Amino acid sequence: MRKLTSKFPYSNVLVLGLARSGTAASLVLLQNDKKVRINDMSANEYDENVQTLKSMGAEVIVGSHPLSVLDDIEIVVKNPGISYDNSILVEAKNRSIPIITEVEIAGQLAGDSIIGITGSNGKTTTTTLTTEMLLASNSKVKVAGNIGTVASQVAQELEDKEKLVLELSSFQLLGIESFKPKVAVLLNIYEAHIDYHKTFANYKEAKFNIFSNQTFDDYLVYNSDDHEVVEAVKRAASRLVPFSVTNRLLDGAWADEKSIYFKDEKIIDRSEIVLVGDHNLENILAALSAAKLSGATNAGIRSVLTSFSSVKHRLQFVETINNRLFYNDSKATNILATQKALSSFTQPTILLAGGLDRGNEFEDLLPYLKNVKAMVLFGQTAEKLKKLAEEADIQEVKIAANVEDAVVKAYSLSVTDDVILLSPACASWDQYKTFEERGDMFIQAVHTLM
User: Fold this and answer.
1) Which of 225, 229, 235, 394 is 20 to 30 A from 322 (CA-CA)?
2) Is the pLDDT of residue 183 over 90?
3) What pLDDT does 224 receive?
4) Is Repeat given among the entry's keywords (predicted)?
């Protein structure tokens, strides 16, 4: 089990917010002989996690946020989802107490073992592809972060020479001090999470933290077709490795109409790749770059690309029912993700969309609705999306109570060879706890149709 070193010089730590990340961070800190105080508004003192942490020596304060929880505290480890407007965090800033997320702890534990992947879209697919490519090349590797398992928990368990592939959100990256991946991947930048970050500039800066501490000994894989990304990486101190779906590159990954390449080396013919969608070509180029820089073989990369078809909830093929094809893209929580999903199909498509209203409009979807024959809408944004459908002259539009109801209504509008696509363009939190729960409800509803 790996231990924190003098690079983490704090002895008295406040963990703000339990959930998965707070619980895991607390356990890691306690196992490293830190004095841990935990504060959570919604937890119950009789919760199993609370009792376990208390038995290990943690002080746990639940049900309120008294400012006294900051007394004698040297650093705050916050749950990524907690806004910086939180009264404890505002007071911590006033007291000049550092505020981090648990990925900073993961970075301290994992050292040069980290491959970090971020971007507005494609993170999960790229993270999964990179991991699978390394595994297929007989490398030792674990995966964690925004993709599921808490980063600090997995980092503590890393073996010698084992890689740690991390999917990293802007929420996580905003709370770092010295964290740096050996290989960083910056996929794209698109306006998102403005309700949390307040401005697009703040959101971008959080994302760009993925390379802010890198040196010339590290690598930054970046999308040379994305203007925002190209401008940002000019300030990186690391070695730049671009990828492009439009230009031939001598120093990175690229594609032409027939094949994909890394520098001057052909990797695979595009006809052999199973993963659908033009947008996934970017994810593939990013993943093979990160994997190659981390020791993956061409044979390992090819074996993954000839067998890997999708990540769950990311343009996931679910079922064919009476020659209707059902796809689950519940992870499309913003407009860009839905644009890319719609671009993946030429068949007549019935789009299921809607969810949390973050105040944005949806006019950027308009050019991508050419193959959409009908829309079934749900959640807080249903009426906004209905106006979009009218502007696109889509004749069949139905409002559904939820995703399950939307599946039934979509099927009633469909004919042979139609695609029925859940790609909400919105977060799930108005009706579902997570996009995973929303996607699972879609899958269940499709199977019920059978």
Assistant:
1) 394
2) yes
3) 98
4) no
